[in-house]
Amino acid sequence: MGxxxxxxxxxxxxxxxxxxxxxxxxxxxxxxxxxxxxxLTDPPYxxxxxxxxxxxxxxxxxYHKMLLRVFDAAYDAADDNAHLFIINYPEIVGRMWDTVIxxxxxxxxxxxxxxxxxxxxxxxxxxxxxxxSKTKFTRASRAIIWMxxxxxxxNVKQIVQPYRNPWDRRVKGLMSEGKxxxxxxxxxxxxxxxxxxxxxxxxxxxYSNQMPEVLLRRIIHITTKPGDVVADPFAGTFSTVKAAxxxxxxxxxxxxxxxxxIYHPTIEEYKPYYLDIFDKIQDEQWFDIDPKxxxxxxxxxxxxxxxxxxALWAGLxxxxxxxxxxLALELERLEDYSNSWNINEQPSFKNExxxxxxxxxxxxxxxIELIPRDSIKRVLEAHNIEFKKNWSDSxxxxxxxxxxxxxxxxxxxxxxxxxxTPFE
Length: 424
Ligand SMILES: C[S@@+](CC[C@H](N)C(=O)[O-])C[C@H]1O[C@@H](n2cnc3c(N)ncnc32)[C@H](O)[C@@H]1O
Prior knowledge:
The protein is α/β, with parallel strands linked by helices. The protein has 2 domains: 7-293, Rossmann fold (3-Layer(aba) Sandwich); 303-417, no CATH class. It contains 16 helices and 8 strands. It has helices at 12-15, 22-28, 60-77, 90-95, 97-101, 169-176, 213-223, 239-246, 267-280, 298-301, 305-316, 321-340, 352-355, 359-368, 373-382, 393-414; strands spanning 16-18, 38-41, 82-88, 117-125, 141-149, 187-188, 229-232, 250-255. The chain has an 8-stranded mixed β-sheet with strand order 1-8-7-2-3-5-4-6. Strand 7, helix 8 and strand 8 form a beta-alpha-beta unit. It is elongated, with a radius of gyration of 29 Å. S-adenosylmethionine (SAM) binds next to helix 3 and strand 8.
């Protein structure tokens, strides 16, 4: 833990700057005695994004020179032991490797000036589906380049991922010692871009390339301690400064676009988080995953896919009507994709006419095998289908199948309207 009580030391005017080039600002506008331990930034992409009066369409040489100028100034302003994290598209990082990341002279020899040392390339994969492309795979990742100056500490085990097999005896032992999970991999899934619908909402007014706070906080937690200075020389919406204040660090930011002044945070907004975290964070391990995005883990649950489907079918009748429909359709979709649309499956050449039963009915036959007796009875009752209480399981299943067969043509036609269930 840092031993400062920084709350009184931070102010918008001293730590947030707009309308000035960061390579200049970092020389004179970082308050004396506050050397950043972490630079965390998402530089311009040079792809023509809208940054107000600041051009995002520079000649490539000019673009690389500007980045190098800013990272040189960051190096000079940084603490003797510090981190730099640069977030950008992988191919843009690739193109700048010899000029910005590991700068070399024109003849290929390393540049003399002291500079950041490359440590690791991390890939952030986000669940995105935009923009679609007819010729390429959908863009859904960015590179995070980790560089260091001196020998800074990094507690890579502060934010961890859940153990895959927490019920294992050896893992249980680790957990009883207070360990929560293994370190993260060098690819980070499940953190979404800032969107109106995600936990990281876009700012109002929106601004190009706003970074999600969950991602920023992860890096801040791992590389700094409460009270440290965290700086962003391409601050945009000042998302890094806000994430720093949320985690009880002193955030410093600068952006050349004067319009970004409206995003400057005030300490009053952040005081509650700031005080809370400062006292709470110890050298413990934490998760930063959102339970809504953590996928169900079959391995951990000790259940195979077939049993999972069985459980879902068994619980189906308990759900509200609309959820019954969607769950049934989803189960059908899974089966259909894997049986009929899996490119690695051998074709089965089923003839619908000869069988007198369509592929879908075949599927239902299999699924009906999984439905418990009580549930079948309830479905039949719900649809006023007469049956005898003492019928055998196979007779009940037969009756349900007969009923489904009757309604299949209608069901198939109305699927998109989301109105009918397979049992209606
Ligand atoms: C990709 S955006 C950063 C967005 C930011 N990460 C956020 O979450 O809002 C890059 C920013 O760099 C700024 N910029 C470009 N050149 C600059 C320079 N030399 N000094 C300071 N800011 C600069 C642009 O105005 C733009 O706002």
